[in-house]
Design a protein that fits this description.
This protein is α/β, with parallel strands linked by helices. It contains twelve helices and eleven strands. The two termini are 13 Å apart. The structure holds phosphoric acid mono(formamide)ester.
Length: 350
């Protein structure tokens, strides 16, 4: 396993890694998956290592894939229950005995374990767009062990790894000539993260995909990430086009990735509750944006639907799509969270 240059690194955004480094982690992930299928475990890769997992938001896939993943590599996961842990705070936000400075939490956990993984986003940071990333970077600044981002407001790199691994299993390493229709879809909640869209497109753009991104005009993505996607497709032989018709993403697509996410321009602190209701009102204008049979039938006959899950059935996607011939990739994508993260951990944890 050639992982030079990766040991000891933080895994905070995909943008911190070259395509070759991402390929290395995916190669390891795919090998570990193949071995898992043969019931061959690799308990000797990270024997006795402890992964500390701090979840400030709920999770099914991320928690269980990390917990299972470190166990299958010979290590152990420690789940830090937020209610039973003093709030880790940035300088200037201390709350007496109710909080503990991140610089101290990171240094203490580094003395005990081999890796610290953190999920923090949304309500937990008052929807301040870059705050969750700043918190994770603060951990990384003081930790002596790798820090893994398990999702912030902007990035979900572990999801991006599982997504691109799933694409690679379907189409191979080279995505040139493959149309990925990526689209916003309607949801009843104004709280769904945008990070999975960012990292799905960012990861695919490294491999030459033709990305058609459809969204209502008010549902822009982060312009800095959009610039990076454009630069990637330029370098990798792919393309990137934006449309305000959902059908443009679906027509002739190999993959339809449809998910709801927040309107960035309506997030606090620009606006506060009750402006969240304003977001629901805005969403209502686009209630017809759903990945249903009609739209999936516009895609290639072999097309698959993708979503990071959890999804809102009947809103973002119809039952017929998810439970029908289009839904398999979605569950492969969820399973690949386990294998992709094993690849990452095997490569970065010393
Ligand atoms: N996709 C994803 O991150 O799922 P969880 O929120 O369940 O972890």
């Amino acid at each position: 396993m050639i992982t030079e240059g990766l040991k000891g690194r933080d895994f905070i955004t995909l943008r911190d890694f070259t395509r070759e480094e991402i390929d290395t982690m995916l190669d390891v992930a795919l090998q570990l998956k193949a071995d898992n299928t043969m019931r061959r475990r690799h308990m000797d890769i990270l024997p006795g290592r402890t992964l500390f997992m701090m979840f400030f938001n709920p999770s099914l896939r991320t928690r269980n894939s990390f917990e299972t993943g470190i166990f299958e590599l010979g290590g152990h996961a420690n789940f830090l229950v937020p209610e039973a842990t003093r709030l880790p705070t940035l300088e200037g936000e201390d709350q007496g005995y109710g909080s503990e400075r991140i610089s101290d939490v990171a240094r203490v956990l580094s003395r005990m374990g081999a890796c610290i993984a953190i999920r923090i986003l949304g309500d937990k940071v008052g929807w301040e767009y870059d705050k969750s990333l700043r918190i994770i970077k603060e951990f990384a600044k003081y930790a002596h062990v790798p820090v893994i981002n398990m999702e912030d407001n902007i990035y979900h790199p572990c999801q991006g790894m599982a997504d691109v691994m799933t694409l690679r299993e379907m189409f191979g390493r080279d995505l040139r000539g493959r149309k990925l229709g990526v689209t916003w879809s309607w949801g009843s909640s104004p709280k769904k993260p945008i990070a999975p869209h960012h990292d799905f497109m960012y990861a695919a753009s490294l491999y030459g995909a033709d990305i058609v991104f459809s969204r209502p005009p008010e549902m822009r993505i982060d312009p800095d990430i959009e610039q990076a996607i454009k630069a990637n497709v330029e370098a990798s032989g792919g393309s990137y086009r934006v449309s305000d018709r959902m059908e443009d993403a679906c027509e002739g697509a190999d993959i339809v990735y449809a998910k709801n996410y927040v309107a960035l321009d309506l997030l606090p602190p620009v606006t506060q509750k009750p402006e969240q209701d304003e977001m629901v009102k805005l969403f209502a204008k686009y209630k017809g944006w759903i990945a249903d049979e009609k739209r999936m039938n516009m895609a290639k006959p072999t097309a698959q639907y993708m979503h990071c899950l959890p999804c809102e059935r009947g809103a973002e996607v119809s039952d017929a799509v998810l439970d029908g011939k289009w839904g398999t990739a979605c569950y492969n994508e969820a399973e690949n969270r386990l294998h992709a993260q094993k690849g990452v951990m095997a490569c970065i944890i010393p």
